[in-house]
Amino acid sequence: EEKRRGAFSSRRVFILAAIGSAVGLGNIWRFPYVAYENGGGAFVIPYLVALLTAGIPFLLLDYGIGHKFRGSPPLSFARMRRGAEGIGWWQVGICAVIAIYYAAVLAWAVRYTFFSFNKSWGAKPGDFFIGEFLQTSEPGVSATPVAGVLIPLVVVWALVIGLLALGVQKGIGATAAVFIPILVLSFGALVVVALFLPGAGQGLEALFEPSWSALAEPSVWAAAFGQIFFSLSIGFGIMITYSSYVRRHTDMPGAGLVVGFSNSGFELLAGIGVFSALGFMAQDQGQEVGEVASSGVGLAFIAFPAIINEAPAGALIGVLFFASLVIAGLTSLISITEVVISAVRDKFELERVAATLVVALPMALVSVLFLGTTSGLHVLDIVDHFINQFGILLVAVVSMVVVVWGLKALPMLAAHLNDHTSVHIGLWWRALVGVVTPLALTYVLVDSFITDVQTPYGDPTAPFPTWMLAVFGWGSALAVIVVGFVLARLRWRDEATVD
Ligand code: PHE
Ligand code: NA
């Protein structure tokens, strides 16, 4: 069985791979701004509450499912109950969609690593990024290719396919074992350099200055739970897949604590690095930190190049920053793509290399077609927003409620986790996973659903065509559900796999 599906050689390698998946773009470009916007120093309270009451407990649920049922999400859910297989495929679909656009950000970061050496973005990084680099069209869909994006995108996919074809240990495990230490070093060096920039102190003050009144606002708590779910990548199949590759009789709860705290540690580190750099930018431009603070694509590809232009040792900062983005993103992209490969392998009994090609080549093709053109930024923007809100969060609530209340699997999973553990999984876990986490998730979900229905997503001064929001936004979130339940109707190559 282990021979057929592949396995990590040790618990340590699993932990590294799981950290590699968790630590991604979200830590670097999302967390610092979310913390800043939602109470600054005071955010530590909702954040820790979310981590301890929902993040880690839910992480352990994923670990329990994958480790006990030893399969990709569809196989694990089918083994729990035949009728639940569709939930697994729904998770697989979400992973496929995310991988398709996540790869594009990686491709941009690869280019920007090289741009850093001689600051190829010139004096106006914003115009350069949107115009010259991405050649962004009006909101809509275009078929005009952009060679400068398309080529690195093909390279990224070739690399991911090559690494995944090597298998669980030699591909996924070895990549994490090599690159996670490099990431810690490169990002650590970046933070140290950033701390010495003039103005760093103001940046840190702006980030850590606590606004205690924020604690009274529900939206701040929603932001904390949202960040934790996104950042730990829980509830959509990644951790089920990785823990299915861990040897039996392994201390999984202990591993979960290590992964959870490492991921949060990396977020804190990123907050310090990013806000030191933003403090420098504010001082340099004679503005408030609040006026220059940003997140996501704008932070990485517009604000950072501007900082790199002006900062002492700018080229060094640039290389460290973009190389860190590439590494953090690569290990996350590997993890989401593996979910799809693993599911297809389980269901159709394909060899590793065949399954990798059958799965990843079409994904790469779609990725190149939609993200390698002048409308790539628009597609990415919409799909990312909707799949995060109504893909990840929704499947997380639904799968959790089904496992807990439909299949009543918690006592069995707790017993499994307790078989070998350094932390006893008691009734507290069942209370958190059964009640607290689903309620918190439902709140966050309903809250963002109302927002999206009331105001169409996007920039009101350059709105997306309605059909585009319908197809790429709501459509992709819905399509993964439909496709998921269709795939669940197909027969297993070997029906005995499921029993
Ligand atoms: N957890 C990752 C992060 O914090 C994000 C991610 C999302 C990873 C989806 C894989 C899949 O950046
Ligand atoms: Na993360």
Task: Summarize the helices and strands and which ones pair or pack.
Blueprint: H1 2-5, H2 11-22, H3 25-37, H4 44-69, H5 73-80, H6 85-118, H7 125-133, H8 147-165, H9 168-195, H10 200-208, H11 218-231, H12 238-243, H13 252-285, H14 289-292, H15 296-310, H16 314-348, H17 352-371, H18 376-406, H19 410-419, H20 427-454, H21 466-487
Helix pairs in contact: 2-9, 2-13, 2-16, 3-11, 3-13, 3-15, 4-5, 4-11, 4-13, 4-19, 4-20, 5-6, 6-8, 6-15, 6-16, 6-17, 6-18, 6-21, 8-9, 8-16, 8-17, 9-13, 9-16, 10-13, 11-20, 13-15, 15-16, 16-17, 18-20, 18-21
* Percentage of residues in strands: under 5%
Number of strands: 0
Radius of gyration: 22 Å
Ligands in the structure?
Answer: phenylalanine, sodium ion
Describe the largest sheet: none
SSE pattern: HHHHHHHHHHHHHHHHHHHHH
Average pLDDT rating: 96
User: What's the total helix number?
Assistant: 21
Helical content class? over 70%
Subcellular location: Membrane
Pfam families: SNF
InterPro entries: Na/ntran_symport (IPR000175), SNS_sf (IPR037272)
Organism: Nocardioides dokdonensis FR1436
Q: What keyword list fits this structure?
A:
transmembrane, symporter activity, binds sodium ion, membrane, transport, 499 residues, binds phenylalanine, mainly alpha, 21 helices
